[in-house]
């Protein structure tokens, strides 16, 4: 049940965490735009969006260890999805059927290999690479995959850094109270 009592609202609100998430998203946006502007400036918003998503995924937990685990799953999944997408798109062009076949191959691979959540992050990355290759066929599959991996890794690293910084600030705050 949703409660709007001031005491309840105050106990649910962590302004430092909210500021940290906002900073992580802004830094990730900037980094994603910068990474993509090197290759294709007109589509830089894709890199910005994916870097932001990666940082938000990592910020789902407030402890550094949990954040690093989420970051690892995100980056590893992105790597697996990118590798399979790049390999597949090196032989076949985008089509709905080819994307479906690639997802099927990826899902079975992830299940066999025991990749967390059967490669949810890998599937998301594969889909993004496939669809973006349809909108920008001049971008090679390798460049596309490398960009998606770089954006994800950058966003995850920024998110982990922010979680570490928030943890450090909370420790300082606790020591100051004593």
What does this 3D model show about the protein?
- The protein has about 180 residues and is mainly α.
- It has one domain.
- It has seven helices and no strands.
- The chain has helices at about 5-10, 15-35, 45-60, 65-90, 95-115, 120-135, 140-175.
- Helix 6 (about 120-135) crosses helix 7.
- It is elongated, with a radius of gyration of 19 Å.
- The mean pLDDT is about 90.
Summarize the structure in short.
The protein has 178 residues and is mostly helical. The protein has helices at residues 6-12, 15-37, 44-58, 64-91, 96-113, 120-135, 141-177. The protein has one domain (16-173).
How many domains, in number, for the residues?
A: 1
Order of helical and strand elements: HHHHHHH
Distance between the termini: 35 Å
Overall strand count:
0
Q: How many DSSP helices?
A: 7
- Detail the poorly predicted runs: none
Oligomer: single chain
The amount of helix comes to over 70%
Shape: elongated
Main beta-sheet strand count, sense and barrel state? none
Describe the secondary-structure layout.
Layout: H1 6-12, H2 15-37, H3 44-58, H4 64-91, H5 96-113, H6 120-135, H7 141-177
Helix pairs in contact: 2-3, 2-7, 3-4, 3-7, 4-5, 4-6, 4-7, 5-6, 6-7
């Amino acid at each position: 049940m949703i409660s709007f009592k001031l005491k309840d609202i105050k106990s649910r609100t962590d302004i430092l965490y909210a500021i940290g998430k906002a900073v992580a998203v802004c830094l990730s946006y900037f980094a994603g735009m910068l990474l993509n502007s090197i290759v294709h400036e007109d589509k830089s918003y894709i890199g910005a969006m994916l870097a932001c998503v990666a940082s938000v995924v990592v910020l789902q937990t407030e402890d550094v260890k949990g954040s690093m685990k989420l970051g690892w799953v995100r980056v590893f999944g992105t790597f697996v999805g990118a590798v399979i997408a790049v390999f597949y798109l090196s032989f076949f062009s985008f089509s709905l059927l080819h994307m479906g076949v690639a997802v099927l191959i990826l899902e079975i691979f992830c299940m066999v290999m025991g990749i967390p959540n059967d490669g949810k992050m890998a599937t998301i990355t594969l889909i993004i690479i496939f669809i973006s290759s349809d909108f920008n066929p001049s971008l090679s599959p390798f460049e596309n995959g490398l960009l998606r991996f770089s954006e994800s890794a950058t966003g995850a690293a920024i998110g982990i850094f922010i979680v570490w910084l928030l943890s450090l600030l909370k420790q300082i705050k606790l020591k100051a109270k004593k």
